[in-house]
Amino acid sequence: MLKIICARLQQGHRTFKYPDGPIPPLPDRLRGLPAIDAAKCQAGCRACAQVCPTGAITVTDKVHIDLGKCLFCAECAAACPQQALTFTGDHRLAVRQRQDLLITQDRQTLQLAAAMDAKIKKLFGRSLKLRQVSTGGCNACEADINVLGTLAWDLGRFGIQFVASPRHADGLLITGPVTRNMQLALKKTYDAVADPKIVIVVGACAISGGPYIGHDQVNNGAEAVVPVDLYIPGCPPHPLTILDGLLRFLGRQNAEAFKSERGG
């Protein structure tokens, strides 16, 4: 026991100070919010749209990107002959409305998630219990959600916890494209949560079907089965993207934390 105590003292405090302190270090390979350089974008070029595996990019007179479908695979950036499309390091991607995930050359900033209404916030703002439901995904989103429970992130310090039963939950956090076999299970789980309740979808699969979009055995996301209150895109989203979305939804995000080169 003495050795354990000594080891713990040597380790010191490992939990990030975020959101009241600086943003935790993020890898250079992080693919965040896409950026389109309109000056470089060549009229009539559809190279980016042609290589997109999920149809997240469409080109008319402008380039349109649906972040709800985007896998952040960067195939589009690699295919662009003018290098007009790049991925920034901006991890802030969570929104409240599905249409807010659409960006174009003229509108490249997101309407980031606003806090839940005052009545719901009064109930859940200090303690939020979520039942996580995996509806047929690859387990990548689930893995990054699990990271939030580790020592450095310590999701519980924000009063956010995952519970084993929907009867004990304030809402659902859904991952996966909602396969046909999981459709009824998701609906029953949603119905088992007492009102008022919230639904958060994490990852491209849960928003639009992700790489499985259009398959006859999936529902192309959770919205076809249950109403959604918060969308967190990515494939998978970085743990900081998920945490940022949750804190914004709870109205507990500190804007000062984003006055950095990465956040702008």
Distance between the termini: 47 Å
- Cα radius of gyration in angstroms: 19 Å
Q: Helix count, per DSSP?
A: 8
Query: Low-confidence parts lasting 5 or more residues at pLDDT below 50?
Result: 255-264
CATH fold name of the domain at 118-258 = Rossmann fold
CATH top level class name of the domain at 118-258: Alpha Beta
Please summarize the sheet with the most strands. Answer: 5 strands, parallel
Describe what you observe in this structure.
With 264 residues, the chain is α/β, with parallel strands linked by helices. The chain has a domain at 118-258: Rossmann fold (3-Layer(aba) Sandwich), CATH 3.40.50. Helix content is 24%, strand content 15%. It has eight helices and ten strands. It has helices at residues 2-11, 47-51, 75-79, 118-124, 140-147, 180-192, 204-208, 239-249, and strands at 34-36, 57-59, 63-66, 85-87, 102-104, 128-134, 160-162, 171-175, 198-202, 230-232. The protein has a five-stranded parallel β-sheet, sandwiched between helices. A three-stranded antiparallel β-sheet has the order 2-3-5. β6 (128-134), α5 and β7 (160-162) form a beta-alpha-beta unit. It is globular. The N and C termini lie far apart (47 Å). The relative contact order is 0.18.
Topology:
Elements (H helix, E strand, L loop, with lengths): L1 H10 L22 E3 L10 H5 L5 E3 L3 E4 L8 H5 L5 E3 L14 E3 L13 H7 L3 E7 L5 H8 L12 E3 L8 E5 L4 H13 L5 E5 L1 H5 L21 E3 L6 H11 L15
Parallel strand pairs: 6-7, 6-8, 8-9, 9-10
Antiparallel strand pairs: 1-4, 2-3, 3-5
